[in-house]
Amino acid sequence: MTKPIPLSPLSPPSTKGNLLGLLTAAFYILFTLLPDSNTAMVEWPWVLFWQVGLLCPVLWLLGIVWQRRFSWLGNRLDWVVGFLLVGLLLSTLLSPFPRQAHWYGWAVLCFFAALYALNSWLVPSRRIGLLIFQGYLALAFILVSLLLWSSQTLAPELTRLQEFRQLGVSLPFDFANIELRNGFPIGHQNYVAGYLVLVLPLFLGLGIVQTGWQRWVWLTGVCLGLVNLYTTSSRGGWLGVALLLAIAVAGLLWRSQLPRRWVGLIGLAGLVGLAGLVLGNNRLRSLITGFFTGQGEGELAYRLITVTTGWRMGLSHLLTGAGPGNVPLLYQRYRPTWAGREAELHYQLHSTPAQLWAELGLWSVLTAVGAIALLTVLTLRWLRSLNLQPTAHPSTPPILIGCILSGLTAYVLFSLTDYQLDNIPISGVLVLYLAVLAAEFRNQKSEVRSQESGVGDEEPEARKQEDKAPTTKNSLTSYFPPLSGLGLLAIILVWLVPIQQAWMLSSQGFRALSQNDLNTFAQRLTRSHQLVPWEPYYSYQLGWNLGNAGLQMSDPKQQQILLQDGVSWLQRGIQAAPDQEFGYSNLAWLQINRDPKAASQGFARAAQLVPAKRGVFYGLGLSLLAQGNSELAIAALSLEALRDPLLITSPLWGLPELQPLYQPVLSRMETEYTAMLATTTAQNSPLLTSQLHQSRGGLRWWVGDLKGSRADLDTYGTPLSQAVLNLAHGQPLESLSELETTAGGLAIAAWLNPDKRQNLLNQAWIKATRTLPPPEILQQLVESMTRSSTLDQWLKQHAPSRQYRRERTGFGVLNRHADGPAPVDFLTVVENIPMTIFFEALMPSLKYAPELDQILQPERDILLGKVS
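^ thats the sequence. predicted structure below, dont judge the formating
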């Protein structure tokens, strides 16, 4: 058992030349504790701050080299780093989008500079202090995280749930809602969980080796960290903690003097506690039950899609990958067609192996295998050396090294479920841990050699010489490496300056746009585009905002100018990012009334990239109709409705230009459903068969074919759909108790109980949306229901509607620029409110339906081939 020793904070022998190291630490602290730091990194001026922060370790390393205090990592770790850097260089040079690769490659170089600078500075007397510093920073991270989550998420949600209870709706605090999970302060719950997996073992190690009040601080940190992890509701986080528990039990069995019975009881208690925390979280509990019942496919779809995309991307750039930062630009080209509306766009692939494979190809595989193998060998050698006699100089307590190794091992498991290396707090911990391990392994090797040869330890003398001026005669050759590094850094800075200038100007432009100063906005972003023409964000924002302003302009001449400018800028955005659906679909909507043939080509390309994107085949149908091609227009509109059946309930079909197509579209849908059912029955696909029967049953009910609808829904329908059918037939409902747990059931209860109608519709809206209904919409629902003689008449003839445009949620973050507004699609959606809010289950429009998308894809390809 390691003897507890008092540990002091960082107290290096001398701070000479360490100002840049302190600045590096200051920026590291800032971006660890800065609220929403992951988003702030892609906003002005924070983007400049983290770039300066990454510059500090580079200058620090160059200063160390200048003073000839540089130390290699040793133990062949430098070969691994060198091999990775060569691969990074080749990947950047061969990348389809090299400028983005340069931007991300520069950041990678800065983190390696931090590793070597820290490694050179990290003499034995500093290692414990550095780990204590990391421990206190992590403890501050947890406190900030819990404080922000409690004040900005938990308290408001509890207040809202209490308000719902007063209105008669009791809803639980639901971690299935991503907005309720704790992503503070980094910005996403998985980032917080990954950070905790790394630092929780460090807390435990410091709690073991320190004494007095410090021990209680660190043990409290362990408890608070587990609470914090619970609030993230992260699956990967709990997998990491489970592995940490297994490692801890194995360590006790190996090194502890406790009886095995006690070790077993400790392991059992930990397992029970872990299971209690997991089962106490409704999201994790539902995932477990869904896994065992075969209903958890949707939860796994997200990562299945991104991993598949990464696999395809890596295969197409086999040796060196697509290049750092190229994933968001190429994502939709390699995204599988069966992905539906899930994971439509991403800037990272939510799996570290998938991300590295996509960006660096086979080079990343060879590097990762080599690094893991080498670290495993070094760890085994370190474990064998633990029985050696302690040396004269102070060393890092073995328990702390073991905890670092445990944290890294658990994080490797966690990294299978997410990619986080572009995050400063997490990469900072990894750099710090690797620097400590490299120094410890290097010293351990020299200790073994000295004991085997009988020679005294040389490390104390090295530490004595550390702060002395170099005695070697100065020469031009000795200063060549730092001078070369400064020259390279100057070239990089010259390249970075216009990027930062463009970011600053765009921020000013967006500020002007928020004040309705369209001219200043256009001038600033035009200049940003001129400075950085390879960045699609500026041209996309110009194109969308100018086009949007043109659509709202009443002056025909000014409208024409703005629309033409919007088209021109979107075309430039497509040149910079030719594999993103956003540019094609928005360009097509601006062209649909001016050049419908060009609009058809734009919609067709958008449909090739994201086939299930809502509105794309609808827009294609409208553009074909404008060209007089009714047959292809019906085919396109039918494909849209087959993937999104609620479209047929929209009041849009009452428009003069669409009304003649309505019945042909409905007839074609009936024919397609019947043909697909014949195929799925032959292929024995029960899930898709059920989906198709429900959709065809809903279609038949909508057009008034109650007998045909009954044939589908008697076997495959839900209690809600069968209740609607019974009411359509004039049959009484046996019981409403089961139905009233759903929004649709409460809406039916409102129909059957006119005296409670407003209250029940209010409850139905809350059930469906977890929000209070707008008063005007609630009033429309009540009035329309009152003047209807049947439920069918209310839903099909008197239902109120609403109009809106779908927002491109996360557009800025996904494109790694968050200064500008989130665009909304130019398509104005007109919805039947009761059908889309209360009765959407009658016509299932699933976000993820891989079998349906696979069976629809041949029809899509045929149509797109005809359009092209």
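The longest strand covers residues 801-804.
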